[in-house]
């Protein structure tokens, strides 16, 4: 089974010139989804992980089963204003607009090894914001994993010095 067969390119979404990578066909096929979760777990099999931090909202789809199967806590990385207790936040320039993500201020403790998980790494801005949040709370980022990575949009620079792994890579068209 080739996971790329379950990732659809949607031209000119959400803006002209963007070829959006749609993972919903992968979610609609249970075996493909299972293989994607297993594949992400395999990418980081030997990494020491105390917690998995997953991004709102599609990153939750992979982060939650990964945390369950690894037997570690899940840290939700949410868009600003969505967590009910005290938080720390980090702003960044998203693909289309400025964004802010937050985690609870007690979600990571000093010395924790944290794996960051999302569906797609594009510019690397969200992932870099997650790195900053984990490190601000005293944790160590052991790596950043995603189902899809779009190359050529700056993520390599944003995440320089961190392990980054994905199941599928696509070269983003130059704009």
UniProtKB/TrEMBL annotation:
It comes from the Bacteria. It catalyses: AMP + diphosphate = 5-phospho-alpha-D-ribose 1-diphosphate + adenine. One of its GO terms (molecular function) is adenine binding. Belongs to the purine/pyrimidine phosphoribosyltransferase family. Pathway: Purine metabolism; AMP biosynthesis via salvage pathway; AMP from adenine: step 1/1. This is Adenine phosphoribosyltransferase. Pfam families: Pribosyltran (PF00156). Gene3D superfamilies: 3.40.50.2020. The keyword Transmembrane does not apply. Residues 50-148 form the Phosphoribosyltransferase domain. CDD domains: PRTases_typeI. The gene is apt. Catalyzes a salvage reaction resulting in the formation of AMP, that is energically less costly than de novo synthesis. Homodimer.
